[in-house]
Amino acid sequence: MNLSVHWRWIIELILILYLSFRLFSITKGTSLYSVLKFLMVFFIIAGLANFSGLKELNFIWKVILVAYIGGAFIVFQPELRRLYVNRAYHRPDSTSRFFFHSEEDRTKFIDEITIACQTLSRKKVGALVVLERNNDLRDFLQTGIAIDAVFSSELVYSIFLTESPLHDGAVIVKENRIIAAGCILPLAEKTEVKKLVGTRHRAGIGITEQTDALSLVVSETTGKVSIAVQGKMAWDVETSTLKKMLRILYRKL
Ligand SMILES: Nc1ncnc2c1ncn2[C@@H]1O[C@H](COP(=O)(O)OP(=O)(O)OP(=O)(O)O)[C@@H](O)[C@H]1O
Question: Which Gene Ontology biological process is one annotated for this entry (predicted)?
Answer without folding.
Answer: cAMP biosynthetic process
